[in-house]
Amino acid sequence: MEKILDLISKKMEKAFADAGFDASYGRVTVSNRPDLCEYQCNGALAAAKVYKCAPIQIATKVAEKLDAADFSMCDAVMPGFINLKLSDAFLRNYLEAMRNEADFGVEKPGAGKTVVVDYGGANVAKPLHIGHLRPAIIGEALKRLYKFMGYHTIGDIHLGDWGLQMGLIIAELQERQPELCYFDPDYTGEYPKESPFTLTELEEIYPTASSKKSDPVFAEKAHVATYELQQGRRGYRAIWDHIMGISLPDLHRIYDLLDVHYEKWLGESDADPYIPAMVADLKERGLAVESNGALVIPVQEETDKKDVPPCILVKSDGSAIYATTDLATMVQRMQDWQPDKMLYITDKRQALHFEQVFRAAKKSGIVKPETELEHVGHGTMNGADGKPFKTRDGGVLRLEQLIADMTAFVRSKVVENKIVEDAQVEATTAKIALAALKYGDLSNQPTKDYNFDLERFAAFEGNTGPYILYTIVRIKSILSRYGAWEALPIQTPANPFAKDLMLAITKLGPTLEQALKTSSPNQICAYIYELAGCVNKFYHETRILTEEDESLKAGYIALIGLSKNVLETCINILGFSAPEKM
What we know:
This protein has about 575 residues and is α/β, with parallel strands linked by helices. Helix content is about 50%, strand content about 10%. The protein is built from 21 helices and 13 strands. Strand 1 (about 30) and strand 2 form a beta hairpin. The two termini are about 35 Å apart.
């Protein structure tokens, strides 16, 4: 379904042509003076230079050619603007078409294409902390947006499950329990099915081991253990299996609390088998060269205005690094899925890393020339005081605790205000808390840092998730009291508030397209905040259920019903949902 701006522009282009001017001057934009008009065309100003004619004369001639059935206002004003307001009939017809089209007629640029969204990046054996919030919920929102826009989407968590942290855990466990059979190189029997440590113990083992990295003896043990694990030592692989068996269910549990779900739970270990052949191939083709004992891929280009360091493939000590794993992961993805695009969501401080990796992937042919590679670098979440978010004892707050804090705060408001019956408190609280947390984050531009303010994010008024939910629930309440409404057709706007709401609804497609183009879920947040504001203004200024004219009432109901469906579609893309009551 064509966007409304494109339809209006076509009519304007025809009017320019009919008036004897080039049609290309007929591009229409949303008015920057909504107090004067809804849309505007500035083409006459540019055309005047070519046709040696006053802009107002061109604008006047063009305005006379526009069909009055489409516009309630088409005025040529000094110095040469064409101001437009849509006719009620044109707007009604457009919204009725939206109502009847699948997904409101939003165009699907991703039809037939595949995108891999690499987000989350959790490390096994470590509890998720607040630093994992942004990549998880930004990535989930972008993945859902790509899916809505027609792409086949594959979300991959890209677990950190194969690096030095594994060697550190093994080395620490060996110091604590050297008698375990995993450390006996001559052991040939079956390893125990039960893990030698619990999740709680594992979460204590890793930081303890990590604190010993400055000890050269312990560090050497950890590096050797990492190497032997990756070379396939049976006992160490069995410990690795235990770590994965304990860590993954807990990661699933926390991500489920955030309503974040991955199609693939692959990690660095899954990319490891692809590394030897990849490195050998790059060496053979002369793309990987030696530099100070390391194997690197030069990625500096002649057009660069600053130095871009080479992408290190193998360190001088023979070990692989993140870049190696990322390139091998691309090899695997291209073999398995042939994606048209790979989208990475990580901290923006990794921008140089991905610039190097993307260039190396293109230069080496690991990905096709037409394969799109994009890194969305996000900012950090700080405390309400603008300083790095810390616990009272100065530590990093666990993600589970952050979710619990938001949930407890929202629950107290739900109970205090008696929003729902006791039996519905927990389910309602969970939905509101998730909306507060996700919207509070996603309403910010991904690249920007922001301050986490629990009270502000959980407020039921203002630009917040709970406010959006409250608007949806209010509409649901009206619709439930009215009865069957789904088949009611859209009518012409009965008042200015209805028209403002209808105009806001037409912005859905362009908003989603722009959010996709710029990888900016915050644009969807801004849109639904505007839409919710129009809904509430319409509600306050219009008698809906008490309207005596049944035909007029049906039109009101159809309009708010469409508004509800649009709002619910958008919050589903953002990754949360509305309760039935609130």
